[in-house]
Design a protein that fits this description.
Number of helices: 11
Largest sheet: 7 strands, mixed
Binding site for pyridoxal 5'-phosphate: 99-100, 127-130, 199, 202, 224, 254, 280
Structural class: alpha/beta
Number of strands: 15
CATH superfamily of the largest domain: Type I PLP-dependent aspartate aminotransferase-like (Major domain)
Keywords: Hydrolase, Pyridine nucleotide biosynthesis, Pyridoxal phosphate
Shape: globular
Order of helices and strands: HEEEHHHEHEHEEHEEEHHEEHEEEH
GO molecular function: kynureninase activity; pyridoxal phosphate binding
CATH topology of the largest domain: Aspartate Aminotransferase, domain 2
Low-confidence stretches: none
Distance between the termini: 39 Å
Radius of gyration: 22 Å
Bound molecules: pyridoxal-5'-phosphate
Strand content: 5-15%
CATH architecture of the largest domain: 3-Layer(aba) Sandwich
Helix content: 25-40%
Modified residues (N6-(pyridoxal phosphate)lysine): 225
CATH class of the largest domain: Alpha Beta
Family: Belongs to the kynureninase family.
């Protein structure tokens, strides 16, 4: 039996300790979904909760539900379910807003804690919204209070100079899948007196993260990617307990007040991470995320990691073995220890190839200018799916199916 044969894949599925989890999802029939890194599949638990929260909690129980169904606690209860996945002890993680807004809050807080410095250091290849948020804050505060500096993605260490206030990095690179050593970088930055904000968008729920053990300062992450919380699901943020007394954020809305229902005119931040809340929580989407997180309750992140790497390994090996796919150039690190849960391939016609894949039932995504990206979400993918997806890709290349003009049309979302 060769490493890539169908029998091997069937056997890998049979031995997969997470195999039963596919039943916890509504995976569309006749499709292979390699885009869990962009929008996770629908968990059955989330679908049930959506119905319950709309029909019963909103429809029947109405305003009583804030207490009756603990709507008011959702930012914390969902936050603690995520905390387990990112190595955070209780009382440091909440669900709210988007990553962008949470970065604004944390950046502002970190700069206020460090007001003798003004440089925010980030990586050249960071997800643009992270950089845009720094640029917006710089416009508001002035360049003498906040200014963005970019370091080469593969050389953060030499950019950690004494004028840097905050280091803002994405743990896993959204394009290449390259993974930073959180422990080492956090240590190096802190040795220079730099506060670190980690963006866990492509890590939470799939890559082991130990925020407390790494002595991370702050973190943000995404609810709709590997956590499967649904389109536009609320994000999360983490504030290390040791910073909670002095970290103050500027979006001081009533939900972050210590006694919102006293309706006092003077803002007084709630103690702890609760002070990072702003407005009324989006109860419907937060409920759906909360239910989606229950899928993780009996899962160990190490298992998720092992399976996602194994799935990616099968994909990578099969692509490498197929002469038809020789033009696809792997951009992701080959070394598993340096990579998240996705693979990126360069090809001058990556956009059309991706569209052809989607038309043939393999959902991947394209990232400008020339990247075909495939994500290996371990909760709902099977090894046999991976074998089939490379077969489809090979057929598209062999028969040049991607040349169909229909696959050149670009829509608003790519
Ligand atoms: C997906 C993603 C985001 C998304 O930010 P939102 O404000 O939640 O839309 C931010 N950062 C990274 C690294 C991402 O991958």
């Amino acid at each position: 039996m060769t490493a890539g044969s169908e029998d091997t894949l069937v056997q890998m599925d049979r031995q997969d300790p997470l195999a039963a989890k596919t039943a916890a999802f509504d995976v569309p029939a006749e499709q292979i979904y390699l885009d869990g890194n962009s929008l996770g599949c629908l968990p059955v638990s989330a679908k049930q909760r959506a119905r319950e929260v709309v029909e019963q909690q909103w429809g029947q129980d109405l305003i009583k539900s804030w207490n009756l169904h603990q709507w008011i606690d959702l930012p914390f209860s969902a936050g603690e379910k995520i905390a387990r996945l990112i190595g955070a002890a209780p009382g440091q993680t909440i669900c709210c807003d988007s990553i962008s807004v949470n970065i604004f809050k944390l950046l502002s807080a970190a700069l206020m804690m460090h007001n003798e410095r003004h440089v925010v250091l980030s990586q050249q290849g960071n997800f643009p919204t992270d950089l845009y948020m720094v640029q917006g804050l710089a416009r508001q505060l002035g360049e003498d209070r906040c200014s963005l500096r970019l370091a080469a993605d593969d050389d953060i260490a030499s950019a950690l100079t004494d004028d840097v206030a905050v280091l803002l990095l994405s743990h896993v690179n959204f394009r290449s899948g390259a993974l930073y050593d959180m422990q080492a970088i956090t240590e190096q930055a802190q040795a220079r007196g730099i506060l670190v904000i980690w963006d866990l968008a492509h890590s939470a729920g799939v890559v082991p993260v130990q925020l407390d053990a790494c002595r991370a300062d702050f973190a943000v992450g995404c609810g709709y990617k590997y956590l499967n919380g649904g389109p536009g699901a609320p994000a999360f943020l983490y504030v290390a307990r040791r910073h909670q007394a002095q970290a103050a954020q500027p979006l001081s809305g009533w939900m972050g007040h210590m006694a919102p229902f006293d309706f006092d005119n003077a803002y007084q931040a709630a103690p702890g991470v609760a002070g990072f809340l702003t407005g009324t929580p989006p109860v419907i989407s937060l409920s759906i995320l909360d239910a989606a997180l229950d899928v993780f309750a009996d899962v160990d992140v190490a298992q998720l990691r092992q399976k996602s790497l194994a799935l990616a390994g099968v994909f990578m090996q099969r692509v490498a073995q197929s002469p038809l796919l020789a033009e696809l150039q792997l951009l992701s690190p080959v070394d598993e220890a340096q990579r998240g849960a996705q693979l990126a391939y360069r090809h001058p016609h990556a956009f059309a190839i991706c569209q052809a894949l989607i038309a043939h039932g393999v959902i991947a995504d394209f990232r400008a200018p020339d990247i075909l990206r495939v994500g290996f979400s371990p909760l709902f993918l099977r090894f046999a799916d991976i074998g089939r997806s490379v077969d489809v890709l090979s057929r598209i290349m062999r028969d040049e199916l991607w040349r169909d003009p229909a696959y050149a049309v670009r829509h608003k979302v790519t």
